[in-house]
Design the sequence.
């Protein structure tokens, strides 16, 4: 969506090559994009188990990512939104990090 501060997006603003936009939460050496944080990032392992249905985590690939993003079950969507919110909170803009009231 280009309106977040994940490394894949934020470092693009600074003209950093895509291969160098790595995850800073788990230091895995993987690119810090949406797919990584939703499916692979060790930093979010526990909350992922709580909020993302196992059927999406068994065979992690672009098809499961697309299926998760196109889910229609309101309960799953609610949990997914909580999970995405937790991810995005780790990458708040500097302005928001200094002012929790926003």
Sequence:
């Amino acid at each position: 969506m280009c309106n977040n501060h994940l490394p894949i997006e934020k470092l693009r603003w600074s003209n950093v090559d895509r291969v160098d936009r790595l995850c800073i939460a788990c230091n895995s050496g993987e690119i810090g994009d949406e797919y990584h944080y939703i499916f692979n990032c060790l930093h979010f392992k526990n909350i992922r188990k709580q909020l993302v249905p196992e059927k999406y985590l068994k065979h992690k690939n672009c098809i499961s990512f697309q299926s998760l993003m196109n889910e229609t079950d309101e309960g799953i969507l609610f949990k997914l939104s909580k999970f995405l919110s937790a991810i995005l909170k780790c990458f708040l803009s500097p302005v928001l990090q200094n002012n929790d009231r926003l």
Observations:
- Residues 56 and 64 are 6 Å apart (CA to CA).
- The helical segments are 7-13, 34-40, 45-51, 54-57, 62-69, 74-89, 94-97.
- Residues 95-102 have pLDDT under 50 and may be disordered.
- Residues 74-89 form the longest helix (16 residues).
